[in-house]
Amino acid sequence: MRTCIVLLLLATASVHSTEAQGPTETPEQVASHFMDAMRSGDWHTMAVLMHRDALSEMRRLLAALFEAPRADAFRQQLLGVTTVAAAQALSDTAVFASLMRATTQGNAGLSDVLRSAKVQMLGHIDEGSDTTHVVYRMAMSIDGMSITRMDVMSLSRTPNGWRGLLKGDVSALAAGIRAAIGPQ
After folding, report:
1. Whole-number mean pLDDT of the chain?
2. pLDDT tens for each residue of 74-99
3. Total domain count for the chain?
4. Is the distance from CB of 98 to CB of 86 less than 8 angstroms?
5. Residue 160 falls within a domain, yes or no?
6. Are the beta carbons of 117 and 139 closer than 8 angstroms?
7. pTM here?
8. How far apart are CA 138 and CA 119, in angstroms?
């Protein structure tokens, strides 16, 4: 009798554990959530959907911004903090969210374009077992002109499901920021 009760409890615990985690989302679903968050300006959700290694890489790319003694104005504009200590205290998630906010905050037109964009997930291409690339079409209107753009969002598998990777143009953005700060 005890054995039956123990087995029943173990079976129930496994079911609850699986239910608590929820079903694993497809790469297209994760990319769609990411795009929805971008369209609505939900920068924190976008950051949460990024891979932690990608967030750490972004922080490394922007290290000059955190450490430059005369970059208070840039830190304020991009991160919402002025001091080196305050910038270093930000989590990688907060850094990503702040950068996304700063990118769109000064450009109401960009925010409008993002909000009105229509995104269609077309599928994904696996690269090994832990990386995939979601192909999507984004249709938007800029100054009354319709534009359709094909793009790819790369994702990596984590224990929490698929999470976004940085695009190559983030390195160019970081280089531009370092150049704007100038030699310290």
Report:
1. 81
2. 888 888 898 888 999 999 999 999 98
3. 1
4. no
5. yes
6. yes
7. 0.77
8. 5
| SS3 labels along 117-128 | CEEEEEEEEEEC
**CA distance readout (Å), 94 to 5, 90, 109:** 47, 6, 24
Domain with 149 in it: 24-181
**C-beta neighbour count of 43 within 10 angstroms:** 22
Q: Is the pLDDT of residue 18 over 70?
A: no
Q: What is the DSSP string of 84-115?
A: HHHHHHS-HHHHHHHHHHHHHHT-HHHHHHHH
| Run of H or E residues at 164 | strand 161-164
Confidence of residue 167 (pLDDT cuts 50, 70, 90): confident
Tokens 């990319």 belong to: 31
Contact (CB, 8 A) for 32 and 119: yes
Give the CATH number, domain containing residue 163. 3.10.450.50
